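STRUCTURE:
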């Protein structure tokens, strides 16, 4: 029973991190191009979803790179690290 719960939590963490990384990538791509009016709600949704997380990393980064924003790279890297830590902790419960 506990094994099933741990496996389900591991699956949830994997899927959540994967989907959130895809959302960040989609947000980056849509911020580079002007979308048609019909797709602007999608762009707003991605902004509402990703911007608070990326803003955290923008505040924590000690340097500015001018027009280059490194917060998505740092944010994705942090998500992957946290995912691996959580999975390692859950594996200890097996």
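SEQUENCE:
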């Amino acid at each position: 029973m506990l094994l099933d719960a741990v496996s389900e939590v591991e699956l949830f963490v994997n899927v959540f991190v994967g989907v959130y990384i895809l959302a960040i990538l989609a947000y980056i791509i849509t911020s580079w191009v002007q979308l048609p009016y019909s797709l602007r709600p999608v762009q707003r949704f991605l902004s509402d979803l990703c911007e608070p997380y990326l803003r955290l990393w923008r505040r924590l980064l000690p340097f500015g790179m001018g027009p280059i924003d490194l917060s998505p790279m740092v944010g994705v890297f942090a998500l992957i690290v946290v995912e691996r830590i959580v999975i390692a902790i859950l594996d200890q419960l097996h």
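REMARK: The chain is about 80% helix and 0% strand.
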